[in-house]
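Entry 14. Two folds queued back to back today. First construct below, sequence then structure tokens.
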Amino acid sequence: METLKEKILSIIKDNNIGTMATLNGRQPYVRYMTFTNEDFVLYATTTEDSQKVMDLNENPYTHILLGYTKEDMDAPYVEITAKLSEIKDDTLKMKITNFFKDIFTSDEGDMVTIQLDPITIKLMNDGEPQELNF
């Protein structure tokens, strides 16, 4: 039987497109994002001057949904509350940059990779909701 951590990690690894919410002032904004991960930490790349980067610089907290698909609306999914942090490992930075290089066409100088450290992750649609705290 899979543990809570294994179930959550499986959903994160198998679903790299999800929604990410930020606050602009008091208004919520949600957009689709492409993610990669190292264990429970998520990474995304976006343009340096994007609204989401400005929002996260003002309020570093975000809410992310991964795992919900049109093909399987009853499948388990995760709700992630995370906080923006700085990527400090240069080898990891290169790995993340290479992952996103083929996805985005903007000049690399215009792109920034953001690291999102989980605070809580809730497993949904798998019986009673279960929460993993970090």
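Second construct, same run, same settings:
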Amino acid sequence: MADSAAPEPLVSRLSLPAMASSVATARMHTRELMERWDLPKLVDDAELVVSELVTNAIKAAGCVSPDARYPELYDRLEVVRLTILRSAAELRIEVWDPRPEDPSPCDAGLDAEGGRGLLLVEYLCERWGTAHPPGGGKIVWAVLTP
């Protein structure tokens, strides 16, 4: 008799320092994960959503650009956390940062270099939102469907 139970969900968790270079790390991690989890159609979209959400979380956490001449700055960096969950029906991306304020899409002008991240997330994802865990901060989450 065949087992009709759904496969166990897959979960990846990654803590990152709140610094600009962490966005590239999050993107590489996501790309590798999509390949490992056999989700080739979601690689580009998942990578872009992760990039936008992690960038926003780093800004919210008060990104510091540590200088190698001052290693003590590294001790004061905030952390952001990326969680990616795959179930049979969806891919959920969650990014936690220590600030409780909800993000909001802004109406960036045509010449603006930034400010469109959440609009991209909204366009690419089935849905997105925020949650406020009991330990503080916020989680911005987005769902893609395979």
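Quick look at the second one. The chain has a mean pLDDT of 85. The longest helix spans residues 43-61.
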